[in-house]
Amino acid sequence: MADAKSNSAVAETNEAQIAVHWKEEEYFDPPASFVAQANLNDPAVNERFAEKNFPKCFEEYADMLTWFRRWDTVLDTSDPPFWKWFVGGKINASFNCVDRHLAKHKNKAALIAVPELENEDPVVITYQELYVRVNEFAALLRDFAGLKAGDRVTIHMPMVAELPITMLACARLGIVHSVVFGGFSGEACGLRAADSGSRVLIYMDGYYRSGKMIDHKAAAEIAVATAEKEGQSIDKVLVWRRYPGKYVSAAPMVKGRDFFVDDVVGNYRGKRVDPVPMDAEAPLFLMYTSGTTGKPKGCQHRTGGYLAYVTGTSKYIQDIHPEDVYWCMADIGWITGHSYIVYGPLSLAATSVIYEGVPTFPDAGRVWRIAERLDVNIFHTSPTAIRMLRKTGPEEPKKYHYRFKHMTTVGEPIEPDVWRWYYDVVGKREAVIVDTWWQTENGGFLCSTKPGIDRMKPGSAGPGMPGIYPTIKDEKNEDIPAGSGKAGNICIRNPWPGIMQTIWGDRDRFVRQYYSKYCKNPQSKDWRDWPYFAADGAVLPADGYFRILGRVDDVINVAGHRLGTKELESACLTVEEVAEAAVVPVADEVKGRVPEVYVALKPAYAPSKEITDKVVATIETMIGKIARPRKVHIVPDMPKTRSGKIMRRVLAAISNTLDTGDITTLANPDVVEQIRVAVQGKEKVATKEGPEDLKQFGKEE
Ligand code: WT7
């Protein structure tokens, strides 16, 4: 949150409980014009998806899809918490997002890809064109790269139409795609490729960012070398070119390993590849995300349940009709892009917009010009982007004649005053807003208002989605009643079709991470004994609208993206001079949270700018620019417990000018004041009030 004052959640903490008070926000009614046309405007949905109808209620979503074979069992709970959905069903995701729309919509735009350079025209891909390109590329994957159902492929690409084409070609053959966010480094990509066992990488040579051509193929060299170091050999790198026929990267093409897609695909012109009927439970993709350890985890998502869940929620919550022009500004390299740029919208035959570049390039009006030109009517973005657009051009939206019926905010808590700017200025008071809370692991939305039914409340995600029964638990595994004013850990009591299947290659970690905390009886085959632990703090007032407070683990939410503090710390520790490292979240006006790094040096070294620069550079190469710390502090020693553990909560308090709390039990309490003065200056300014996640950070240690 921007700062402690604009954050209306003001909290008091003691050992046993956290009481959270905030100013209650007024409700907003969805505009009548929206309600009249909404896919979901009949409150009977609440009854249909009530607990007594679980799990059968989710057939409503599965029935929105075209199945090769209908399922026998909706939910199989025989191996908790490895739930199986729509068992016995056969389905293909590519067929559902492409082929089935041809009869009615072949001439309709499926994708409109907007290049960052404003003098390059948007690229329109109709459903027919998508069908042709997906088939040709699938033929290439099968016949040239030798890939088949169940193989994994790592895709490291920017926001271009070729990215969904690549994903859908994989899905057509049952190849499990693992898309790595384009802004991650080659090294981060290589580690993920190795973990997934990919022997093929798919790249693009370059792309535009802030008006500059980024040499992206250069990252492929590092990715291949990193994967090989991890014992995974890469035998092919398929390279799309930003301008077919014209290579924009300086990295050499390695003979026999690297191939230009636009060269090779010519051999498959006109080829058709039958979509492979996949088991509903076959994995569709992996999406790596950060957790509490240094190693990112591959969230494995299933085909049938996932596609059903994103289709149902895109229809009901995003309110997508085939005639809508839908623009989600997220990156396809994150789960939001998978679910709500590619699979959900395309499954509903919508037009989905993809933008290559920076929202404020070349100026603060760009987003609104795109919306106006393409006549976008559904808009989806994050609080960070909203804060940035407000900061750079608070009056800009008024200059353009777009008209949104629906807007989404996702990825971080949104401050009520930022919400109101979104509503008043961006939405021109005509658009409904949904604040959707969910995670990479979840496949789709978990909490949100139903846009055609529920009133909106700024800063609160809202009630559980249809068929999702959330609860807030305390540390003793008791449910905290609504309206008590106490914060706790938000959990989902039941399984749902979008939940990940497992962590790729690590079943134990899956159980430990999400279920061990609140499962009372590990022998039980009853789903009621297996609440899903989301690692977010939340409060629930009497109206049933969940308000998400932020992560309760070692994850930092930077601009709506997840970074593991342990990942950053491991990167710091590879710097020769560094003996110890601790990473903490710091409140940032635009990005929500940013990381700050504390390092202690080995005895032989003195602090220097070279060392701090080296720490920053190492983080950028090992993870990517998104993990760039705001500051690196070199400290004489870390604040530690008597048993030698670094007290990250003390460092987080110093970085955020919060009260450091009780430090008398530390082994070296004096160092705290030294660090404080070095970071904040002599004067004492600490406050007891602040965002809950910052106050909780490192508490467990
Ligand atoms: C974390 C998940 C959801 C896809 C994009 C991020 C935070 C997400 C909200 C929201 C408050 C939110 C949570 C969550 N978060 N949506 N509407 N309000 N916080 O996916 O990278 O897996 O991050 O983002 O802390 O745990 P992710």
Low-confidence segments: 1-21
Strand order in space, largest sheet: 14-13-10-8-9-16-17-25
Question: Whole-number average pLDDT?
Answer: 94
User: Quick one: how many beta strands?
Assistant: 32
Helical/strand content category: alpha/beta
- Which cofactors or ions or other ligands sit in this model? 5'-O-[(S)-butoxy(hydroxy)phosphoryl]adenosine
What kind of sheet is the major sheet?
8 strands, mixed
Helical content band: 25-40%
Gap between N and C termini, in Å? 24 Å
Shape: globular
Rg computed from alpha carbons, rounded to a whole number of angstroms: 25 Å
Beta-strand content: 15-25%
Number of helices: 21
Protein model, in words:
The structure is a single chain. With 701 residues, the protein is α/β, with parallel strands linked by helices. It is built from 21 helices and 32 strands. An eight-stranded mixed β-sheet has the order 14-13-10-8-9-16-17-25, sandwiched between helices. Strands 7-6-19-18-20-21-22 form a seven-stranded mixed β-sheet, with helices on both faces. Strand 11 (206-209) and strand 12 (212-215) form a beta hairpin. Helix 6 packs across helix 7, helix 14 crosses helix 15 and helix 19 packs parallel to helix 20 (670-680). The chain is globular.
Question: Could you provide a short overview of the structure?
Answer:
This protein is an alpha/beta fold and 701 residues long.
Task: Indicate the topology.
Blueprint: E1 9-13, E2 18-22, H1 32-37, H2 44-48, H3 59-62, E3 73-76, E4 84-87, E5 90-91, H4 93-97, H5 102-105, E6 109-114, E7 123-126, H6 127-144, E8 152-156, H7 162-173, E9 176-179, H8 186-196, E10 200-204, E11 206-209, E12 212-215, H9 217-229, E13 236-240, E14 258-260, H10 261-264, E15 278-279, E16 283-289, E17 297-302, H11 304-316, E18 325-328, H12 335-347, E19 351-355, H13 366-374, E20 378-381, H14 383-392, E21 406-410, H15 416-426, E22 432-436, E23 470-473, E24 488-492, E25 502-503, H16 507-514, E26 532-539, E27 547-551, E28 555-558, E29 561-564, H17 565-573, E30 578-588, E31 592-601, H18 609-622, E32 632-635, H19 648-655, H20 670-680, H21 692-696
The structure holds 5'-O-[(S)-butoxy(hydroxy)phosphoryl]adenosine.
5'-O-[(S)-butoxy(hydroxy)phosphoryl]adenosine binds near residues 412, 436, 536 and 550.
